[in-house]
Specification:
By secondary structure, the chain is α/β, with parallel strands linked by helices. It folds into three domains: about 25-190 and about 260-340, ABC transporter transmembrane region fold (Up-down Bundle), CATH 1.20.1560.10; about 355-440 and about 520-610, Rossmann fold, CATH 3.40.50.300; about 450-520, P-loop containing nucleotide triphosphate hydrolases (Rossmann fold), CATH 3.40.50. About 60% of the residues lie in helices and about 10% in strands. The chain contains 19 helices and ten strands. The chain has helices at about 25-40, 45-75, 85-125, 130-135, 140-180, 185-190, 195-230, 235-240, 240-295, 300-340, 405-410, 435, 455-460, 465-475, 480-485, 505-515, 535-545, 580-590, 590-600, and strands at about 365-375, 380-385, 390-395, 420-425, 425, 440-445, 520-525, 550-555, 565-570, 575-580. The strands form two sheets. It has a six-stranded mixed β-sheet. It binds adenosine-5'-triphosphate and magnesium ion.
Length: about 600
């Protein structure tokens, strides 16, 4: 077979539909999204919570009002008959306050947890639809941080920001009303500094927001480091890299700490600005009002009343300004969550009518001039392949030739940039995605095991598998051999990523999954490479039986494994350079013959293996 000619300009990879490529959404967009998606439907609940808060707040006012009859009527006026009433009223005010506070705190905690859970669920569902490339650009730790950390930061909106806005907002309005009532001119003079606040607050707000985003990024970086360290812990220990990794982690934490402290200081400085303005206002009123009092236009009592209202106003006002900082940091998280949800899945359901899924007998697999690059470097360069239905086709070739990538594209974990892949003559991109993936049973080069029982790892959610069928599969994949020796047999947990099993045992679990899944197309990527010679030959027999009458694609470095394939395709640097059966290819004396000669020249390497 002629190598496919090199494409002249290599097709550019699809534009990055990625997190960093997005422009920053306006706050209006973010808030609108949060409102429509998570808040609007709970408006009644929210209002009820805020009313309870107001009730809690007003009980302090009621208490202060009760002080007056306590003194004037009872203590001074000597009306002993009223003691019981006033005492009961004061106690009642505190009971109402306690109950209202308990209820609204619980309500807001519930709301916050609910919204966080909803958001995390939506994020995970979305993430699971994204492609291969996305997960290579975004390490698990960073994604975990986005799903968990940023959702949590948002939850603070409901437990910290919103309640304070409600409480302090009510206080500010009430006290401002009182101040205006006493003297509207004094009030205006006192508030003269507020416009001066606007510019610095706007600037601070931007800074806090930016550093807030930075803090989230560093936090994600720290999670990524931890994730990598724990996954690679044995490599680190064996190479004595503990101190090195520790120092790297410390540097990331250092950056995070700096950003975090700056965010908090920035938020706090907004509150301090409010203090400065209050000081200015107070001084001005003192000068202006003082003159009026001296001139006999105003009374000292009026001034004291105004001063009290104004002094009480400062605290909620400053707390509201500081909340702006908390709001900005929550927005920073909201921005990141929103950006993640905006990443468009590249592997999508076809837009038009679905092509019917191929019948078992017509599962011929074709690659026609397929070009593919994970990033900029082309991996498949005009790759052609025909794997006949019901036959076994082997892919061989040097490491990095693109063999696994062929499986990646066939199962649509990524789509090619040019060319076409068909099954039964129909483009796989026109088929229902779930249906397409249901056509394959795969033993991948690095099949994932989950921290569940051995049984769950094999069944992988399959329903209604009879005990006899399961036994048959376990025997064929030689899982029974080691399962019976495990402390709890099939119910033994296999540890994170199957770490409690040996490499060969994990591979046998992956094979048993494929055996159990009675799919029309079988994809085996180095399926038996980790097995000892005896198990390999036994498992190979089971796989051979399974592949009978099924379209099978096998990748193997050990040529002895593929010798009996109906067709062998030799891949080099993303192209098919040779194809034919074993005898033909050996006779041709090309790439395959050279690979073969190399392997069989190694003394005792392959000849010893039974076939
Ligand atoms: N996620 C990825 N991002 C970027 N490049 C990748 C990715 N996966 C694979 N590659 C590159 O694509 C090329 C082909 O990889 P592939 O896994 O298909 O090779 P292979 O033929 O299966 O090799 P092996 O025999 O070692 O398993 C390699 O050069 C590799 O560096
Ligand atoms: Mg591979």
């Amino acid at each position: 077979m002629q190598p496919h000619p090199l494409p002249q300009p290599a097709p550019p990879p699809a534009p990055p539909e990625d997190l960093e490529a997005q422009s920053r959404p306006a706050d209006r967009v973010l808030v609108g999204w949060l409102w429509r998606g998570h808040v609007r439907q709970r408006l009644v609940f929210l209002i009820a919570g805020v009313l309870l808060m107001a009730l809690e707040g007003s009980m302090l006012g009621a208490f202060s009002l009760l002080i007056e009859p306590l003194f004037d009527q009872i203590l001074v006026g000597g009306r002993g008959d009223m003691i019981g009433w006033v005492a009961a009223a004061i106690a009642g005010a505190f009971v109402i306050r306690a109950v209202a506070s308990l209820i609204h705190k619980t309500m807001f905690a519930w709301l916050s947890e609910k919204v966080m859970a909803e958001m995390q669920h939506a994020l995970l569902a979305h993430l699971m639809r994204l492609d291969h490339g996305f997960f290579h650009r975004h390490p698990p730790g960073a994604l975990i941080e986005r799903v968990r950390g940023d959702s949590k930061a948002l939850g603070g909106l409901f437990t910290a920001v919103l309640p304070k806005v409600a409480r302090d907002g009510v206080s500010v309005v009430a006290l401002l009303g009182a101040a205006l009532w006493i003297d509207w001119r004094w009030t205006l003079i006192a508030l003269i500094g507020i416009p001066l606040l606007i510019l610095p607050i706007l600037v601070l707000q931007r800074i806090v927001r930016r550093i807030g985003v930075d803090a989230r990024i560093y936090s994600a970086e720290a999670s990524t480091r931890l994730d990598e360290i724990f996954h690679g812990i044995f490599t680190i220990q064996r190479s004595g890299l503990e101190a090195h990794e520790g120092a790297r982690f410390q540097r990331v934490l250092g950056r995070f700490r700096k950003a975090q402290v700056r965010t908090i200081a920035g938020s706090a400085s907004m509150g301090s600005l409010a203090d400065l303005v209050a000081a200015l206002g107070f001084a001005l009123v003192l000068v202006y009002g003082g003159a009026q009092i001296l001139a006999g236009e105003r009374t000292v009592g009026q001034f004291m009343a105004f001063f009290t209202a104004f002094a009480l106003l400062i605290e909620p006002l400053r707390s509201l300004s500081a909340l702006n900082g908390a709001w900005q940091t929550a927005l920073a998280s909201l921005e990141r969550v929103y950006a993640l949800l905006q990443v468009a899945p590249r592997i999508t359901q076809p837009a038009g009518p679905l092509a019917p899924l191929p019948d078992r007998r017509e599962t011929v697999v074709r690659f026609e001039g397929v070009h593919f690059a994970y990033e900029s470097e082309p991996v498949l360069r005009g790759f052609d392949l025909v794997a006949e239905a019901g036959r076994t086709t082997a892919l061989v070739g040097p490491s990095g030739a693109g063999k696994t990538t062929v499986f990646t594209l066939l199962t649509r974990l990524a789509d090619p940039q040019a060319g076409r892949i068909t099954i039964g003559g129909r483009d796989i991109r026109a088929m229902d995605l779930q249906g397409l993936r249901g056509l394959f049973a795969v033993v991948a080069q690095d099949s994932a095991l989950f921290d569940e029982t051995l049984r769950d790892n094999i069944l992988m959610g399959a329903q209604g598998v009879s005990a006899a069928r399961l036994r048959e599969v376990l025997d064929a994949a030689h899982v029974s051999d080691f399962a019976s020796a495990l402390p709890e047999g099939l119910e033994t947990r296999v540890g994170p990523r199957g770490s409690a099993l040996s490499g060969g045992q994990r591979q046998r679990v992956a094979i048993s999954r494929a055996l159990l899944r009675d799919a029309p197309i079988l994809l085996l990527d180095e399926a038996t490479s980790a097995l000892d010679a005896r198990s390999e030959s036994l498992v190979q027999q089971a796989l051979d039986r399974l592949s009978e009458g099924r379209t099978t694609l096998v990748i193997a470095h050990r040529l002895a494994t593929v010798r009996r394939a109906d067709k062998i395709v030799v891949m080099e640097r993303g192209q098919a350079v040779e194809e034919g059966d074993h005898a033909t290819l050996i006779a041709r004396g090309g790439a395959y013959a050279r690979l073969h000669a190399l392997q069989f020249a190694e003394p005792g390497a392959v000849e010893a293996r039974p076939e």
